[in-house]
Amino acid sequence: MPDLAAVSRREDALLVVVDIQQRLAAAMERRDAVAATTVRLIKTAALVDVPIVVTRQYPEGLGDTDPTVARALDEVEGAGHPLYRADKIAFDCFSDAGFARIVSESGRTQIILAGMETHICIAQTALHGLRSGLEIQIAADACCSRDSEAHTTALDRVRAAGAVVSWSESIMYELVGAAGSDEFRSLLRIVKE
Q1: Which domains does the chain have, with CATH numbers?
Q2: Which residues have CB under 8 Å from 138's CB, separation 6+?
Q3: By CB atoms within 10 Å of each CB, which of 18, 22, 92, 179 scores lowest?
Q4: Is 0.90 surpassed by the pTM of this model?
């Protein structure tokens, strides 16, 4: 029997976009690639009715959400897709009462993480989620740290703790599930962007 925790499931999933903010992103070597990959995850989540939560860490200091990501979020929200926003000062998203309430009220049990920085906010959020009994998936190519070694070490750490570390396209194709549908044709357009 396959381990279903390792597979992205649209009925259980919640996409969490963590702190992809202007001033923070400016320090990231892979910021453009991470933003573009996150946009594809956002569009896929909207395609398959997976709710989205976006966080901002201390926006007064780190700025607003990166414009590329913000445009995609505004687009899906404008189309009526469930989108929740949470500003925080804690590095662990779950330590913010607003974020924790959003996740709890969603009823979703699988958290897909994308964002910045892997070794700080992504890792702390993943570890807390695991301790809370949630399934955690991290889109490795939709996350980054200022230091690539810190990114890799954090992924190793959360994987050892029980998180699934995957690639964005793997997650996207799992959420869609099969070829031959309008959803799949839309997914192909998203992947090629």
Answers
A1: 9-192 (3.40.50.850)
A2: 112, 113, 114, 118, 122, 126, 155, 158, 163, 164, 165, 166
A3: 179
A4: yes
